[in-house]
Design goal:
Blueprint lengths: L15 H7 L2 H18 L1 H14 L7 H13 L10 H9 L4 E7 L4 E8 L5 E3 L7 E3 L1 E3 L2 E2 L3 E3 L3 E3 L12 E3 L8 E4 L1 H13 L6 H16 L5 H6 L10 H10 L1 H7 L5 H19 L13 H16 L3 H16 L8 H13 L3 H13 L6 H7 L6 H13 L5 H12 L4 H20 L3 H14 L3 H14 L5 H37 L2
Helix pairs in contact: 2-3, 3-4, 7-9, 9-12, 11-12, 11-22, 12-14, 13-14, 14-16, 17-19, 18-19, 18-20, 19-20, 20-21, 20-22
Amino acid sequence: TELSGLHRHLSVHDEYSDIERLYDSITYKKGAAVVRMISSILTEKLFFKALRSFLKAYSYASVEQDDLWNHLQETLDNQTEVQLPAPLKTIMDSWTLQVGFPIVTLNTSIGQISQEMVDLQGENKTTPGNSSWYIPIYWMKNETVQHLNWLSTKSSVIPEMQVSSEEEWVLINVNTTGYFKVNYDKSNWNRLQLQMSRDPNVIPVASRLQMVPDVISLVNTGQIEIETALNLTKYFDKEEEPLVWYSVLEETKFFRNRMKSFSSFGVLKEYMLSKLTPIYYRYMNLSNRGFREMDDRNIQHAVLRIIQTTCWLGHKHCLQEMSSIFSWWMQDPVNNTIPKYLKKTVFCYGIATSTEKEWDYLWKWFLSLEPETDQMIVLSSLTCSNEVWILNRYLQYLLDSSLISWYDITHIVKLLADRDIGHPVVYDFIRENMEELKLKKNMTLPPLVHLLGDIMITARSDALIQEVEQYVNKLEEQKYMENTAKYIESIKKANIKWRKEVHERVYAWLKGAIKDSGH
């Protein structure tokens, strides 16, 4: 789900500084994806056999990527089971020596499949040009996995990928083994949605997990309509895999935050809760206080995100559970322990549903904590109060306390800036304490302006947005003027685009979906 940032090519440089620079998140994420693809192409058995031989042959020696390709090729040449359309080096150079990654588009009405480069550095659009990859196409038609096809040109027709009835569908990049995004004709997207509404388990988990990031990217590039993407959500009440839900909730977080300031948010809440409630109740078994760490940390994080979002949407049972657990913890914080992964959620919604008494208790608890323990969890949770005066007092505490760094204040104020109730609170706080923040916390202007920008991104009030913009323009120091002006202008354009091109269509779709479902 993290293809969007992985654009630099993978290569080896001679200078030490170059080598050091290359070992960043792109190297590890793109590298891992490419290695997984190689393993799939060669088969895991053959890949590990060749890899063990390679490591033995080059132990304690310096190597380049061609050494690996050549060694793998030797292993390929000594068997007949796996046949490639070109030398392995030719295939892999197309992935490691050029930036970006492809989007593969299938038109099932004629069986045409094509590739083009995705450029997410700029405006998230496809880029015309000569870039092409050797792409392994693992695919299935209806419930049957098909033989591997290769796409090495810009476009090709594969007759078997053509569908002949409304009951047929095609899925490519099965199990997301390839390092590319996928698009289909509108009819095939609709047929996939109908299949998942009948039985999502026919589609592999990894493929379902990648669908939402793909369709969001496609909406952003203008390659599919937003309604086509929204249609895929209709099956979610049948989705029982936490990891798929994690992907869905992570990818749609910005979208939900945009909607929350509009009157249409009530419709979004109703729709999302109708989809979330089944899996929420399946995993929410906390009332007996029988906490335990889950064996699989990925599942643990996914379940936590499900609980967090359900509470964020105002689900009555979820809020009551968090409040009950928080009260139980307060009775004996030493012995009534909560797993660390759940603490922030319990503390946050415990504070959100409680009074000044509970807030003061948690603040005093923070003051008693040793450094590097649960301090940031507590500081973040204290922003969850729904009392404006408590939030104002909290910000003053932070300003006066020697325990709080400028970094912590930035984090906490950003959390508040993301909340509707926090917009005027944060704006007034920064405006009234600008000089003190600079002096006491050594904060510079750019991060403060960006915090004000966060208000403009999610605020519903045009008057507040305009007031913040005018304030920023007045206080701007000359050396920051150009960059901040661009930042503010980009926010304004995004807000206008959201309201004119997205919000009304989403609102209309949600109302129709709720009506059709009978809720």
